[in-house]
Amino acid sequence: TGGLVTYVGYHLPPPKGYVFVPFNESGGRWHEWEWAVKKGFTKTVVTTEGVEILVFDTHTCSWTHNYQTRRRQIEQLLRDSDIRERRYPVILAGDFNFDVMTASNGTENIPPEALQLREAGFVSCVQGRQGDFSTFRRGNDYVRERDIRDLGRDMMLDGVYTRDGDGVDMVPEEVKVIRLKRGEEVSDHDGLL
Which of 69-86 are b and which e, b meaning 16 or more Cβ less than 10 Å from the residue's Cβ? Predict the structure, then answer.
């Protein structure tokens, strides 16, 4: 499943539904590791205060320069009937493999994949916020120097997007990057809460 997990807080009822949908295109011909994992998205329906919220989690193509595959993967996700219906509030989180911070607060050089999300009504949780939200950075033992050199800088490759539903405004109260001490990391990406 590409490492996708959705945790539901202990104070919420169990999810009403959960499904994993593999991407039609993996990008495997572009990157040596893409073929090894089945990438796609999960959809979980959770209820809080009587409101059903759709929670999507995704991991798009890792090959940094392969935005065409990521665009097709995001198009597939956006074709999901519950997203198109626009009835439910939506939380969309994941490892997007494009610079979410630039996409959220910039007007130039916005990755095409981010424009797709914006046009579908999604708003990044870091839009208008200040701070270092880099989730892929130097100092993480799993990050290869070659990767940082190729990217040119630390980046926020993971993100959380929201979209309002009928009568429900989705506004995140806080955004936090979980930075573990050097040597205690479990991934090449820091967690995002």
Answer: bbbbbbebbbebeebeee
Return the structure tokens found at 154.
């630390």
What pLDDT, on the 0 to 100 scale, is given for residue 78?
92
- For residue 1, pLDDT over 60 is answered with no
Q: Which residues contact 15 (CB under 8 A, 6 or more apart)?
A: 6, 8, 44, 45, 46
In angstroms, rounded to a whole number, what is the distance separating the alpha carbons of residues 189 and 36? 19
Cβ atoms of 105 and 126 closer than 8 Å? yes
Tell me the pTM. 0.82
Residue with tokens 């169990």: 14
What is the overall mean pLDDT for the chain?
A: 77
- Contact status, residue 116 vs residue 138, Cβ threshold 8 Å: no
Going across the sheet that includes 123-124, the strands are: 17-22, 40-48, 51-59, 90-95, 158-163, 123-124
- CB distance 72 to 35 below 8 Å: no
State the SS3 of 31-66: CCCHHHCCCEEEEEEEEECCEEEEEEEEECCCCCCC
The phi-psi region of residue 83 (left if phi > 0; otherwise alpha if psi is between -120 and 50; otherwise beta) is: alpha
